[in-house]
Design brief:
The chain is α+β, with helices and mostly antiparallel strands. The protein is built from five helices and 22 strands. α3 (111-139) runs antiparallel to α4. The longest helix has 32 residues, at 5-36. It is elongated, with a radius of gyration of 41 Å. The chain starts with a helix and ends with a strand. The relative contact order is 0.18.
């Protein structure tokens, strides 16, 4: 078909008419549904009212004075077990396994060593019995001194070879030097290892030690014996007990080290060098205005909160107020600027709220 300017114009007009007809049908269907109650349009404000806002209140209470520091676990007694020979690991204790002193932690393949041990042990037993017989014969003058000395030399040789084979055989077994737990496993069963290769780390069953550093200037203000220590882990918090302080200042970081003790129990399952935060509580301020830390947000390093003023029913006006803060911890913030007690504040979505906006709150 040959297209002319007239044909193209007709095609365009027909397609445009079809599109307009389709839009008209859709619009009419929508309006019919709206009239029948099937479709309900919502205003922007109505949608805002449906958001489930979290709220809190400014209250007078006490606030804990706290600081948080990075710490890690160190063990009072730990050792790295190595092998002195080359071999293939037949079995190895896994990380977290509890062991007793003398337990075999790593077993290397020992077939060849066991075969050598059996041969040398048989020769040792034979030479020992031979020597005992020759001692009796020598006493009765049935053999000469040289014959006895020869049997003695053969016995000493067999004894040395047996002891050497026994020591070699025992090298295939690596045992726990004390009661404890496997805190780090570096190799697996089937691995080929050379001499002096680190295999596992064993930690004792004594209480864990946690170490963390504080600025030397801060340490002059604090009585560490009377502080509360909380170890913050993924499973919750664990109480730590003050153990000792290293008063020698680290000149590179200008800090000193604090050591804590943590009970070594099934609930407190730590490994050496596990890292976490230590919450240090060293005082409290009473009768101050505080608010949940979620209420405070920051713009260009200035602190703000959204105060809610009731308009009617469950409608509230949002008023952004700059505040000055004092102490703060992982739960609350102290407000030292002017704000009334029991003021209702917003705990979320603050950055999406504009000043004097009306929102709905379900009380």
């Amino acid at each position: 078909m040959k297209y002319t300017l007239t044909n193209i114009k007709d095609i365009f007009i027909n397609n445009a008419c079809n599109i307009i007809l389709l839009i008209t049908i859709c619009f009419n269907c929508y309006k019919i549904g709206e009239i029948n109650g099937n479709i309900k349009t919502k205003t922007r404000e109505e949608i805002k009212y449906e958001i489930n806002y979290k709220t809190g209140k400014v209250k007078k209470h006490y606030i804990k004075i706290q600081k948080q520091f990075a710490g890690k676990v160190i063990s009072p007694k730990s050792t790295v077990l190595k092998t002195n020979i080359q071999g293939i690991i037949k079995s190895i204790a896994v990380e977290g396994e509890v062991v007793k002193c003398g337990d075999v932690i790593i077993q290397l393949e020992d077939k060849d060593a066991k075969c050598t041990l059996d041969i040398t042990e048989a020769m040792y037993v034979f030479r020992k019995k031979e020597l005992q017989n020759n001692e009796e014969l020598l006493e009765k003058n049935f053999i000469s001194d040289s014959e006895y000395d020869k049997s003695l030399c053969e016995f000493k040789k067999a004894e040395g070879e047996y002891n050497q084979a026994l020591a070699r055989y025992e090298m295939h077994k690596i045992k726990a030097p004390f009661d404890g737990k496997v805190s780090l496993q570096k190799q697996t069963a089937g691995s080929i290892v050379n001499s002096n290769i680190e295999l596992v780390t064993i930690s004792s069953n004594e209480d864990y030690e946690v170490i963390f550093s504080v600025p030397s200037s801060f340490s002059k203000e604090i009585d560490f014996n009377n502080c509360i220590y909380e170890i913050i882990t993924s499973k919750g918090t664990v109480e730590g007990k003050f153990y000792c302080i290293d008063n020698e200042v680290n000149t590179r970081t200008n800090s000193i080290s604090i050591k804590l003790k943590i009970s070594n129990s099934e609930e407190n399952d730590f490994n050496i060098n596990d890292s976490f935060n230590v919450m240090l509580t060293y005082g409290k301020k009473s009768n101050v205005k505080i608010v949940n830390k979620e209420a405070v947000f920051y713009i260009q390093e200035k602190a703000y909160l959204i105060k809610l003023l009731k308009v009617k029913d469950n409608k509230y006006a949002c008023v952004k107020q700059e505040i000055k803060i004092g102490e703060k911890n992982n739960l609350y913030v102290e407000i030292i600027s002017d704000i009334e007690q029991d003021a209702m504040v917003l705990l979320d979505n603050q950055y999406n709220i504009y000043d004097n906006q009306i929102i709905g709150i379900t009380e």
